[in-house]
Prior knowledge:
By secondary structure, this protein is an alpha+beta fold.
Amino acid sequence: MLNTLTRFIVSKVGRKCSLNYSPSIERCGAKSLSYCNHNNRLSSVLSRRSNFIAQDRLTTATEFSLSVKMAATWSMGPGTLEVPLSLFATNRRRLAEKLKPGQVVVLQGGEDINHYDTDVQYVFRQEAYFIWLSGVREPGCYFALDVGTGKGHLFVPRLPEEYEVWMGKLLSCNQFKNIYGVDEVHYVDELRNVLKSLNPDVLLTLSGPNTDSGLTAKEAVFEGIDEFKVNNEILFPIIAELRVIKTPAEIEVMRYVCKISSDAHKQVMLHTKPGLMEYQCESVFLDHCYRVGGCRHVSYTCICGSGDNAATLHYGHAAAPNTKLIQNGDMCLFDMGGNYAGYAADITCSFPANGKFTEDQKLIYEAVLFARDAVIKEAKPGVMWTDMHLTANRAMLEHLKKGGLLKGDVEEMIKNGVNGILQPHGLGHLLGLDVHDVGGYLPHCPPRPEGPLARLRTARRLQPGMLLTVEPGCYFIPRLLDGAKNNPSQAQFFNWDVVDKYRGFGGVRIEDDVLITEEGVENFTFVPRTVAEIEDFMANGANFK
Ligand SMILES: [Mn+2]
């Protein structure tokens, strides 16, 4: 929550870059600054309000004293990764290479969003395509890439002088240019005129389906766009595909955020014990990611399920906010990932709360680990992700059969959907700027499978440079078990006297973040994984490297 002073400031001036002027500004002056999300109206409204507008102080003494050296990198300070701004320039170059001179890409960045009818805003996270192209972290911006010249043009909101009193120094265009390492910076109210001066044949805007959310990418809109020829179909499949294959610089950021997230998970394991609340473990993760790793955000709501909560796949949301007391004998399933420079980690550790596996826990855990190992061993370029899913399922079912939970032929189990009872989710997903990253089902890729594999977030053939999660799991979900028990074609494969003992057990998930290399996979996750490693680490702390 914002404190009172900050709320007052926000009520006076608004958050940087989300500023917009309500029509009532003429009557009320600066106090009527508001946050309506109509940035496309910004230019015309602002141009009529010149008395409120800070001038571009490019030539003033203040500008001179504020000038900063051209930054080559961005970081969160000592000990955190220096991300080269060339990472984003490389992304722009890769995109320009796929397009034609005369085309100008126009993206609109994210905007601040208010909580209902108050002046408090949701924590801002930049829209992922916009970060990919620009590296820009703040709201209210546009970005244009002129394919013919290869130049990137950033457009920032023109902010009122009052901003400087409440929110911090007003930066000139030149300073933005230095901070983000882009070729040109202008104000948003200059967007139309600058684009006109580029004399484009066509503007390319972003519009396409996100196959995970079911939502459509937010297409750029601005005043005057109807004066241009606009195509909103060319860009989406090209830029989404470029995001799937990571560059060496992106891979370094992913390696870093996965390492920080791994270390944070290890801190959680050392801290966890019966008698703590689940959210106290969550807070250890958040603390390490931010305090040590400079991760201002995590990539998704932390899932900290203990005991039977571990069978709730996306536990941790507002209706189930990690508020159970951890009991002796519980398994913990903690799925958490930091976010650095926009890039996401997504790691799950499962372990006994008291640091020592029971025989029952060991059986389920090792079945899942066996599945993970099978995938890590077989995944390489050319392999279908759907086949990896089934490889994991087979390995797990074999192990559970050996352990006495299941009986019969494993292939018959899969034909009858037993794998989907115990692991209702897909093996894993693409990972990058979004935790469920884009590009799973692009037009040139295999379509979403029918039937039991439909839950997979991609059915693609693996290629070097892809980053994916490998996250097999085994859960005892009452609703699904009851369904299987009442379905003779599935019920026949379960030893119900054994399986019913596991009701209330929860579940196990093991989730690694891996890079597909020329030879196979490189695992970016460094946490204790075997039963022996986990027990030793939880008992003796720092032994695990
Ligand atoms: Mn995941």
